[in-house]
Amino acid sequence: MSGDESLRRIYGQFKRHRRGMLAIFLGVVAAAIVYALMGTPVYRVQVVMMPASDKEDLGLSSMLGPLSGFAGMAGLGTALGSSKGEEAIAVLKSRSFTAHFISEHNLLPELFYRHWDAVGKRWTFMSSRSIPTLNDGVKKFDDDVRRVSTNEVNNLITLTVDWSDRQRAVDWAQQMVHELNDDMRNRAKSQAQQALDYLNKEMEKTSVVELRDATAKLIEGELRNLMMANVREEYALKVLDPPLLPDAKRPVWPKRSLIMALAIPLGMILAALYALGLEAITRQRDLLRSA
Description:
Layout: H1 3-16, H2 18-38, E1 43-51, H3 55-64, H4 68-73, H5 77-81, H6 84-93, H7 95-104, H8 108-111, E2 116-117, E3 122-123, H9 134-145, E4 146-151, E5 156-163, H10 166-205, H11 209-231, E6 237-241, H12 256-290
Antiparallel strand pairs: 1-5, 1-6, 2-3, 4-5
């Protein structure tokens, strides 16, 4: 069969089933329009941050010089050489921080709002086994709500929150940054206090002048760290661009133009498959009858 004959045959198939094809095409386009207009909007909020300065830690490390080994014995080595920014990013991405955030703000009913009866304050599931757990909430939060990205070139950190309630998205972004800095500050205070307790004990034990001088420098550095943890609100991450309330008319999803651009070729493909499928069924039935 030549190419022209094949095209004529396919054209004849489409012509015979043009009504069904048109119905399928219009149905797909209509469904896309309804979804684009009626789908739950998702808004995006972003917070741009940068790590807080570590100059105090670096200055103490250089001041100690060869005595830094003694700092390691006191449990200070990792603190002196690490970046609070990197640690803060790791904490922000961690499951434990996310789980605590969800529990602290009772977010499971909001994350799974389709299955939550706000009036009766209960889940709509028939079985208790279907009720979302904290692990389910952490997974949904990580997959659909919160994203953390870093730019190594300019050392910027971007926290992105996507949610259907634009004000809640702003609130969550602000709360996460605030609670993260609080968590990092409390960690630093606890670590500094433990180091001070250790160093004061070591100071009492030794009478060697060089070691007493080294211990005094370490104590001075830990006192500085403790002071910074107490007075600096943005202890680990400094906000450069705070979250702004998104425009209600500009959600990031659904994208109407994209949905329609995909719906038209999809409708055409499904309509063509419908016609070709019917022709194949008809031919198979004719073969069975003639056999």
